Amino acid sequence: MTLTLLVAILVSVLAGLVCVVGLWTRQVPTLPVLVLMASLAAGLGFGLSACASFLSLSLFGAYPHRLVITDVGLLLLLGIGGLWPFTRRAPRAAADAPVAALPAPRLRWLLGGSLAITLVCAVLTFMLLSLRSPHGWGDAWGIWNLCARFIARAGPDWREPLSSLPGWSHPEYPLLLPLSVARLWQYLGRESQAAPMAIAMLFTFSTVALAWASLAILRGSRQAALAALLLLGTSALIMAGPSQMADVPLGFFILATLAGLSLKDRLPERATLLLVVTGMTAGLAAWTKNEGCLVLVSVVLARASVLGRTRSWASWWRELPAFVSGLGPVLLIVLYFKLAVAPPDYLVSNQGWRETVPRLLAPARYLEVFRGFKNAVVDLGDATIINPLLVLLFYLVCVGIEPDERDGPSLATGLVTLGLMVIGYGLVYLTTPADLANHLATSAGRLLLQLWPSAVFLAFLAACPPERSKG
Amino acid sequence: MMAGYPVRVRIGVLSVILFALLSSGITLRRALDPPPWAVAQDEISRYEARFWLLRSALPPKGVVGYLSDPWPPPFDRDWLKGFFLTQYALAPLVVVDNSSPALVIGNFRSVGSKRNAADPTLVLVRDFGDGILLLRHQSR
Fold first, then answer.
1. What is the DSSP letter of A401?
2. Of A77, A207, B93, B114, which has the highest C-beta tally within 10 A?
3. What is the pTM of this model?
4. Model pLDDT, residue A189
5. What is the ipTM, given to two decimal places?
6. How confident is the model at residue B116 (pLDDT cuts 50, 70, 90)?
7. CA distance B57 to chain A (A)
8. Does any CB of chain A come closer than 8 Å to the CB of residue B49?
9. Do the Cβ atoms of B111 and B125 come closer than 8 Å?
């Protein structure tokens, strides 16, 4: 069983690797580059496999052997017909991104040792919590794994039960996570909780790895190690992983999109492929959770406004074709799912002007939403230790803010994106037809967690690297 | 260890390192309380096991009703948890929170609950024990 599970995971990761290998094939591989490729490959692979599984289900029905054929087809399509031509455009002379000189040996050992210890602790915590709750937490068995069971058990009629489910089970949620789980079950030939556990583990630690690798390339190994330490030390993140909910995967795709744009700004010779990958990750965010649609809109608006202001509208316009070529296929799948398969979203369908306007005009709701966000920020930490946001702010005060000039547009894009998302989340809460207090209590913390890895990435992208402060 | 760095930078770097070590240690300790090997079976698997026999007596697909105690449903955390776990155990059957379908699942926790209070037309088809019942409408 373990071998079959590994093969199924490897097929997904391989599909993702085919997409990103073109970024670096003509370069001397360095550890950050390899980790960047591996972490992106894990997320992209599962996302694209879920897209392929959805097409396979929609076209051929739920038959395991057809699923394997679809996986092989996906690999071939990506490898030969899809992104491979882009890799040929990467000039041989293109230099690797400047990685800061290695830190002094003692500090390097301190950072490396601390990172190793926290990583081991985080992995052990993840495994212990997964063993204690193999079905995940509330929303995992109430929404995501439930949906996976419907797909895996209903066979060719998988659409029917989805459309009859009550709104509480959110059958309108996108299918990246349920299809990833159902796909692994179909490979295994039975339902095993090892499948959602493995997916959750890959997304959780790929998020940390992606932040580390991107920052190591952009800002040097010390900033990268400190960012990874902060993420691994965020108990809410490490405990949300084994919950098997979609917030950590969504957080991964938000981070991948913003980190991809930052890398694109620094590595112009690989810009096209990085934009394609960024388009894919933004699309996969929308294929993970409804909030992902907000991510997509926010990123596009933020990038347009920042480039229009700092460079020219033409530079934004030039980025669009590559971005859309990555985004387009995934977005078409999301749109098809939303229009043809999913029932209406209760947050949208229960809204009319008559109900929404009074909610928007009620000052008490603004206060309640503010309090909800404040509680979510407090909950990011642990009751027994300091809040990681405070640690991050304290670190920024200590080292100062001194972003690289070249990171200006991507940093601004990231900050505007996160700002727009917080505003978007706030508007959803203000207009929610559900009980506001309950809605906030059950979701605000998770929404904040989706943004946390990106916030840490942007903060360390802006922070002055310790070596520059050296006297 | 960080010779040549300004004090404020040393403090900043060390604060992140200390936070991460402390936080990950505390989180690990909490994950070990209780250790998973000290618990025979997790709560969800235990709950699901109550439905094993019932699943074989139900059609492979369709819609079934759901009754639980107390009646009327309070839609509170406990009630919703029971409802969702029943749905999770019986998928791909769709479970609805009323007694209108031909077959209705009874999921009762307290002995002597008024099992037909919600719908007097319901008759018992089979009692699977542990509060799990299969009911149907008398008139159908």
1. B
2. A207
3. 0.92
4. 86
5. 0.89
6. low
7. 17
8. no
9. no
